Amino acid sequence: MQELTVDIESAVELEALVAALRTLPQVTQRVFVLRKVYSWPHEQIAARAGLSEAAVVQHLVAAALACMRAVIEPLEYRTVATDNASHTPAM
User: Fold this and answer.
1) What average pLDDT does the segment 15-27 reach?
2) pLDDT at 72 over 90
3) pLDDT greater than 90 at residue 10
4) Cα separation, 4 vs 1, whole angstroms
5) What is the pTM of this model?
6) Which of 29, 31, 37, 81 has its CA 20 to 30 A from that of 22?
7) Is 50 in a helix, a strand, or coil?
8) 5, 6, 79, 80 from 86: Cα distances, Å
9) Quick one: average pLDDT of 62-88?
10) How far is CA 39 from the centre of its chain?
11) Hey, where are the domains in the chain?
């Protein structure tokens, strides 16, 4: 049962990541995919997108922050909710 729970949580996190990435500007999405999915180096992404390498890094940071917020904030909420539920007095 734990394996199923992990798979569901992973699927939910993946959906949250995709949703978060879709809220970003298209250039940020493109830079993120080229780097993280296709492993392109910064200089190649910069040349392809007409950006400086510093701009590529800025787009990657923006995407990383969006991904972290999408996964960590709900995780923190679940942790707080679980902690609160374990401290609920019995009736």
Assistant:
1) 94
2) no
3) no
4) 5
5) 0.73
6) 81
7) coil
8) 19, 21, 11, 10
9) 72
10) 17
11) 23-80
